[in-house]
Amino acid sequence: MVITATEFKTNFGKYLDLVINEDIIITKNGKPIAKVTQHSQDKLDILNSLIGIAKGNGDANLDQIKSERLSRQ
User: Fold this and answer.
1) Residue 39, Cβ neighbours under 10 Å: how many?
2) Which residues pair with 32 in a beta bridge?
3) Cβ–Cβ under 8 Å, residues 27 and 36
4) 19-34 confidence digits (pLDDT tens)
5) What percent of the chain has pLDDT over 70?
């Protein structure tokens, strides 16, 4: 759901109830500025949302991943 910052401010309680079922994107001047999401999201849902983000062939181990991440800093 996408709403304006003014709408969110005016109806804060309403959106607290709605965020249980869906994420809320808040816009200001037509540009997204924030995302409100439920606090306790299922860990499997989070993991599934990351599929396709990591590069590689799937054979990387934890040490390789850590080394690559640290080399980018």
Assistant:
1) 6
2) 27
3) no
4) 988 999 999 999 999 9
5) 84
Q: Which amino acid is at 63?
A: D
pLDDT tens digit sequence for 41-73: 677 777 777 776 666 666 667 777 778 778 876
CA 27 to chain centre: 15
Strands 2-4 and 24-28 come out as parallel
3-state SS of the chain? CEEEHHHHHHCHHHHHHHCCCCCEEEEECCEEEEEECCCCCCHHHHHHHCCCCCCCCCCCCHHHHHHHHHHCC
Domains of the chain: 2-71 (3.40.1620)
